[in-house]
Amino acid sequence: MKRLLMLALGLFVHLSFAQDAITNFPNKPIRLVVTTAAGGGSDAIARPLEQKFSEFLGQPVIIDNKPGASGMIAMDYVAKAAADGYTIVFATTGTIATNFALNPKIPYDPLKDFAPITRVADTYLAFLINPKLGVNTLEEFVALAKSREKTKPLTFASYGVGSFAQLVTEWFSTIANIKMIHVPYKGSAPAMTDLIGGQVDCFIDTLPSSMPFIKSKQVKAIAVGLEKRGDGVLADIPTFAEAGYPEFKPVAWWSLLAPAATPKPIVAKLQQAAAKALQSQEVKDRFALALATPIGNSSEDFGKFMKSEVDTYVRVVKQANIKLD
User: Fold this and answer.
1) Cα–Cα nearest to 277, from 51, 34, 32
2) Which of 226, 229, 271, 292 gives 287 a disulfide partner, CB atoms 3.0 to 4.6 angstroms apart?
3) Is residue 134 domain-shared with residue 232, that is, in the same domain?
C-alpha cells in the first residue's frame, strides 16, 4: 500500500511539473533551426520573422542554420529533439514534400514526426522562356512542345535532379500532356544563365530569383502562379489559370514545425505568436521586398495543406518516374 502511495505521489509530482512547463512556456530562448545556410533563401524569410516572433513570445528566438542533405539534416535533428517547444524547424516545400516523394531512405516522416505550427509565407513561380523561342503565350509554348516531341524536343532547366524546379515542371508537363528533356544544373543561377543564352528553352523558377531577369527582359515570363495578376511588371503576365491551366497551382512555401509529441497548448502558443508576428506591418514590408506573402494560418489548416502537398508530389514523382541517381 505504501509503495502504491509513493508511486501515485511521484506521478502527481511529475504531472504537476509537466503542467507547469506548459503553463509557463516559454521561459527560455527558443531555437529555430533553418534547413539552409546563412544568407540563403530561407534566411531572407526567417530573419525578418525572428525579431517579431521573439517579441510576441516574450523570449528570444535564436536562428540555428543546419544546412546539408537537402535540408534533411536539420529536419531529422528537430524530429528527434525534445518535444517541449524549445526546438522548432523552419521547413520548406522541399524538406516536407519533395524530399519525402523522392527519397525512400529519408530519415523522417513529415506527416508523422512533426506537429504543424503554421505556414509562414508563400512565394510564387513564373514560367520563363528565352525570348528568342518565338512564342508569346503558354498556349503557344505547349503547341510548340507537342509539335517538336518527335523531332527536336524542347528542354527545361532545373537546379538539380529531384529538385523542386524539376518536380513542378514535370507536374505541368503531365497536366499539359507534353514531353520535354530535363537539363539539370547545380543551382538556379547557372540554369538562368543558360536560359538567357538559349541553351535551354524554359525554366520554372521562383519570382524572387527571376524578377531581375524578367524586368530586364533577358527572359520572358509567359505565366505566373499568382491567384490574380500582380502589380508593375507582373500586371502584364497572365496567371496559370488565365493561361488555361487553373489546376496547376505551384507555390514555394515556408513553415514552422515542432517535434510530433509537443503538447498542443505549446503548439498553440507558438502558432499564436507567429501569426501575430506575420500580421505586423514591419514583417509584411520586409516580406514584400522578398516577394513573399505572409500566411500565419491555423495548425489544423496547415496540417491539411501539408498532406495535400505531400500527396501532390508523391503523385508527380510516380507519374514522371523520377528517380534519384
Assistant:
1) 51
2) 292
3) yes
Helix (H, G, I), strand (E, B) or coil at 321: coil
> Could you tell me what percent of the chain has a pLDDT over 70?
93
Nearest partner of 117 among 324, 310, 302, 319, judged by Cα: 302
Residues contacting residue 255 through CB under 8 Å, at least 6 positions apart = 90, 91, 92, 96, 116, 117, 118, 119, 120, 302, 306
The residue to which cell 528517380 is assigned: 323
Looking at the 3D structure of the chain, how many domains does it have? 2
Would you say residue 242 lies in a domain? no
Q: How far apart are CA 225 and CA 169, in angstroms?
A: 13
Is it the case that residue 193 has pLDDT exceeding 50? yes
Are residues 117 and 256 located together in one domain of the fold? yes
Tell me, what's the pLDDT at 55? 95
List the domain range (segments joined by +) for residue 314.
Answer: 2-123+252-320
List the Cα angle 244/248/252 in 5-degree steps: 135
User: Could you say which DSSP state residue 239 is in?
Assistant: B
| One-letter identity of residue 178 | I
Does 157 map to a domain? Answer: yes
261-283 burial, b at 16+ Cβ within 10 Å, e below that, comes to ebbeebbebbbbbbbbbbebeeb
C-alpha R_g of the chain? 22
Cβ neighbours, 10 Å, residue 162: 21
Q: Residue 86 CB: number of other CB atoms within 10 A? A: 18
* Reported pTM: 0.82
Residue 130 covered by a domain? yes
Q: What is the pLDDT of residues 144-162, one digit of tens each?
A: 999 999 999 999 999 888 8
CATH number of 163's domain: 3.40.190.10
Output the nine-digit C-alpha cell for 85: 517547444
Q: Which of 181, 204, 236 is the last residue of a domain?
A: 236
User: What is the rounded distance in angstroms from the CA atom of residue 114 to the CA atom of residue 89?
Assistant: 9
Is-contact 59 30, C-beta < 8 A? yes
Do 37 and 143 belong to one domain?
no
Q: What are phi and psi of 318, to 5 degrees?
A: -70, -45
